[in-house]
Predict the structure.
Amino acid sequence: MKSFPETANIIQQRFLLCTYISNIMVKKALKWIFLSLAIALVAIQFYRPARNENPTTTANDIAIAYQTPQEVTQVLHKACYDCHSNNTKYPWYNNIQPVALWLADHVKEGKEELNFSEFGSFTTKRKLKKLKEIVEEVEESEMPLESYTWIHNEAKLTAAERQLIVEWAKALSLKISMQEGGAQ
Ligand code: HEC
C-alpha cells in the first residue's frame, strides 16, 4: 500500500491533467461554435426576402378611394406606409441579414392587420373596424411601433398630428357608415 501523501500526490496530478485536457476541449469547442456562427452569418447574407415595392398608387389606396386630405396622407405616408401598404421605403440596412428578415416580418404582419393600399377593397365592416383600431392605436401612441420611430425620427407623431389622424379617422368612419352602412 502506498502512503497517504503519495496517493494524494497522484490524485492531484490526475486532476491537473484532467483540467488541462478539458480546457483544451472547451477551447476547441468554442472555436468551432464561433466558426460555425460566422459561416452561418455569411451564408444567410445570400438569402433575400421578397421586397414589398409597388410605387404606383392604385384606385383602392385610401388616399384615392376616400380623397384623403393632403396633410393626412403625408402623415400616413411618413409614419405608417412602410408597414401598412404595398410600398415600403427600405433603409440601407435592409441589405443586411438577419435585419432584412426581421423587417420583412414586420411588413408582412403589418399588412395583414391593415393595408392602406387595399383599403378601398375591404368590406364596410372591415373598414369601420380598422378605422376604430386606428383611432385607438394612434390615441394611445401604440402606432407607429416604437422600434420604428427609434430609428425613423421623422415618424414620431406630434400631439397635433395624432389629433389630425384621430379626427380624420372618426370623420371617415361616420361618412362610411352613412354612405355604405346598409350594404354590409
Ligand atoms: C414598423 C412597422 C409599423 C409601422 C411604421 C406602423 N405599424 Fe401598425 N402594425 C404593425 C404591426 C407589426 C402590427 C400587428 C401587430 C401589432 O398589433 O402590434 C400593426 C398593427 C396595427 C393595427 C391593428 C391593431 C389592432 O388593434 O389589432 C393598426 C390599426 C395599425 N397598426 C395602425 C398603424 C398606423 C395608423 C400607423 C401609422 C401612424 C402604423 N400602424 C405604423 C407595424 C407597424
